[in-house]
Amino acid sequence: MKTTASEIDIFEIILLIALALIFARLLGFLFERFKQPAVIGEICAGLLLGGFGLGLFAGKTVPFFLWEISFPHLQYTSEAFEVLAQLGILFLMFLSGLEITFSNLKKVQKPSIYVAVGGVIAPLLFGMLVSHSFGFSWHIGLVIGLILVATSVGIPVRVLMDLNVLNTEVGLTILGAAVIDDVLAIILFVSVLGVATPMDVTILGIKIVIYFILFLFVGLKIIDKLFHIGEKIQLPKALLSFSLALFLLYSYFAYQSGIAGITGAFVAGIVIGRSMKSKKIIEDIKTIGYGLFIPLFFVWVGANVDPTVFTSFTVIAFALSIIIVSIIGKIIGCWIGGKLAGLTSRHSLRAGIGMIPRLEMALIIAGAAVAQGVLIGETATQILATTVLLTLVTTLITPFLLKAAFKYRY
Fold first, then answer.
1. pLDDT tens digit sequence for 107-149
2. How far apart, in whole angstroms, are the C-alpha atoms of residue 308 and residue 298?
3. How many other CB atoms are found less than 10 A from the CB of residue 384?
4. DSSP state of 404
5. Distance between CA atoms of residues 90 and 83, nearest Å
6. Residue 244 has what pLDDT?
7. pLDDT digits (tens, 9 = 90+) for 46-81
């Protein structure tokens, strides 16, 4: 059971943050020294600090010669730490939006749509077929296929930024496609699984359209005027505070519109980055994001790993099969989509690799299917465990694969 913020002493939260930053930076640096992505080191920091590392001693008293040592409550899966971690992924997506050029993103509109659609269809079909071969009904197979649909863009964005290729054709295609497949996953989930009525689906679609019209297209036209108002506040870093408030509001209203909050953060970055005055705040936002919140997100990812769910051979075999088809399905589907949109084979392959990670949306769909009674009993337990392993494996392998795919810059 998770511990709420009110149950944790404020200074224990401060200790969580301090240890997370120290371990994340040290392991990130170590991985970079071995020419591996720093983000993997940060996730490994979470593994070390989580419930199967130092977290094993959380709250316990251990005898040491004549004394007793009481360990603090290191709970990196607590709600309090999760709030900080979620701010980290929002900052990462906000920064990715700030660093791209909107006109360049529009240039990859076609490949983004094709890659997204290909990356939805292939994993969905592969997931259904594999699940059916393991004895699940087609309806349950459909749930599993939907779990494989949505890409978690946080990991590839971080790697692409580290490789300095985010603002390239492939980098922008991955970003655009990830936003699109996120929306497709939501609509498919609520409509195909019958967790919403046709009217609910229609209302959801209208809310998403209204969000993008108001917050993207109208936002692009009035952002300079908003920044002009922010500049009139004659206080230190007032423009920075004004920008952060806008970015958080974009995330909030995206969530309220049925879209992932990270998509709202990304849209906020695009809009604010369009203003010439944004150059005054970008370095400050990088300092806050990379210096504090973003590492906490990756530590939280690592801390949520629970290896005890895999004790049955059948569960392991099914999980491995699903993971393999999730990776192959994304690569094949996105590769076909990229080729149909005119990308080269190499760029299509890179886009497919960048679309491999699954994280929050996969867990949300699996959890919602259980909550709605679509998955019950042992089936629910098995699919939830598989989803957890899926998110872990795809999160860990993508940085290595992306780095290898971009080894040669042509």
1. 788 999 999 999 999 999 999 999 999 999 988 898 899 999 9
2. 21
3. 17
4. H
5. 11
6. 94
7. 888 887 777 777 777 777 777 777 777 778 888 888
Structure tokens at 182: 């996120």
Q: Which H helix or E strand runs over 165?
A: none
CA 69 to CA 333: how far, in whole Å?
54
Query: What is the C-alpha to C-alpha distance for residues 181 and 357, in angstroms, rounded to an integer?
Result: 12
Q: Are 226 and 327 in contact (CB under 8 A)?
A: no
Amino acid at site 230 = G
How much helix, strand and coil, in percent to the nearest 5, is found in the chain? Answer: 75, 0, 20
Residue 228, token pair as written in the block: 């002009």
CA end-to-end span of the chain = 49
pTM: 0.74
Most confident of 35-49, 143-157, 378-392: 143-157
What are the tokens at 323? 């993971």
| Alpha-carbon span 160 to 399, nearest angstrom | 9
The phi, psi pair for 306, rounded to 5°, reads -130, 95
Element (H, E) at 68: strand 67-70
In sequence order, the 6+-apart residues with CB closer than 8 A to the CB of 409 are: 165
Which residue in this structure is represented by tokens 């600090």? 49
